[in-house]
Amino acid sequence: MGENFDSKFFIQLLKKCLILIFKAWQKRNVLVLDFEVRLGKAQNFAKAKLPIFFSFAKDERQSDNFNNILTSTNMENTKDQTKKFFIYARKSTDSEDRQVRSIGDQLSELRELADKENIEVVDVLVEKQTAKIPGRPIFAEMLKRIETGEATGILAWHPDRLARNSVDGGQIIYLVDTGVIQEMKFPTFWFDPTPQGKFMLSIAFGQSKYYVDNLSENIKRGHRQKLKNGIWPQKAPLGFLNNKETKQIYIDKEKAPIIKRAFETYAAGNHTLKNLRKIINGLGLKSRTGDLLSVSNYQYFLQNPIYCGVIRYNGEIYNGKHKPIISKKLFDEVQEVMTRKSKPQKTDKMKFFLLL
User: Fold this and answer.
1) Would you tell me which of 52, 158, 177, 354 could form a disulfide with 2, CB atoms 3.0–4.6 Å apart?
2) Model-level pTM greater than 0.85?
């Protein structure tokens, strides 16, 4: 049996086995254990059935070939170890991200993962914007830089940091399909650029979108219930303040008198919105951010019925439980003046001919 043993064939077989082992080790997956078991069985088989296997290494030429196999395979593996990635961290102020870890925590974990995986970080990109809709500038810039070959992978805390809408999610998966994005790594999610990995990534993106859609529907339902109860469901308009305990709005004693003065002044019919702005701004009325109000701001709040106790929301009218700043009569008078002033003035034709 020893005479028929083909050492060249065995060397080729062993080379293939070693290459597969190194590739499996590089990917850090369960195949390593599988190949270790297979290699152990092969060694036991060789000891029992092929004694000549242990003598071929005495031949210097064969021994050199074996060393060349290990050296070339190891060099190939070392060459591919350093990979270029972008770190992308995102957290918005919207309700869907309230439970998400802070930007600092995300970056800390991602840098730790990069060191562990021997990843070269090309750039760290931070975005403070919701991913519910497409159009994030930093995210778009990152994909363009990846397409130009600046990096081949992305490090993010979770797939929902990359996309919460179908457009951005589909774009990521397409770039993986075309090989532009070769790898993505997450501390909280496993991904591999295989059919199974892309399928799981699609599910993750779908779950993120479902979460946002469901949360949005729950918020709308809560708003509808509040409106039916006569409660303003959002941040209080200018002249009111939010009561965190009762969830209702109440009069801002500092700004409400100035707003009432604005309604009374305009109702007299002697002032344009531009003149009104000059008068009321002179009394110290400012927005929450401390800015002076514009003409459009005055037009908006003079037409808002919330100041007379009525809530108008998404085109529907509700009776508010809050205390009004002005009377319904004063509000109606302001609307009449605004309607009259918005109509085009008729030209006196006789006066026009007399001037000729």
Assistant:
1) 52
2) no
